């Protein structure tokens, strides 16, 4: 099966200007998802979708393909990820004159991914034709609340009324597709990021909560890397290798 990894990275960040080429652990942010995709060993093409020439240059230096820039109408503040992925896949397929079977989504702002998650996601789709998408999730025992139709606060799930030790509580799973998401390419062509028949790749790593959209997020990410490289290098193999 032909597999493409598409990494969206527009240039118009407001919360952290120049976000996707800010330096983290000695490299621009855009470097890390590219390196993870290549390290997974199961991706044919790594394509960065960007409207920014500086991001494009850094992406090429890291080993990605950027044969053209994204049209500005797909790089606006309210442009959805689904629209971006659909446009990027269709344009790259037309450019390269090929069709992909599996499409992988990674972001430059979620950096605490393990390349094995990418490999597991793709391998799952290859070996299980009924699965439409496989993606990273964060396992938690926290309770969640929302407002119902009457405007009143209520727990998201009834069992959350019962409190117990976290060791024996039910679990919920936060979708973290920016860390790793592999889907059948036909879903993206239809404008859908993930399907309904899914495989989850759980982790309970605290650092995966860091999604870099501000200077404080970038600071936290660097501190987390410093700690993990010293104490839990198996959780961040790419950073550990870079910082040897």
TrEMBL record:
Question: Sorted alphabetically, which keywords does the UniProt record give?
Answer: Nucleotidyltransferase, Transferase
Concerning InterPro entries, the annotation shows:
CMP-NeuNAc_synthase (IPR050793), Cytidylyl_trans (IPR003329), Nucleotide-diphossugar_trans (IPR029044)
Q: What Gene Ontology molecular-function terms does this entry list?
A: nucleotidyltransferase activity
What CDD domains has UniProt attached to this entry?
Answer: CMP-NeuAc_Synthase (cd02513)
Domain of life from the UniProt record: Bacteria
Task: Name the PANTHER family on file.
Answer: HAD SUPERFAMILY MEMBERS CMAS AND KDSC, N-ACYLNEURAMINATE CYTIDYLYLTRANSFERASE
Task: Quote the protein name from its UniProt record.
Answer: Acylneuraminate cytidylyltransferase family protein
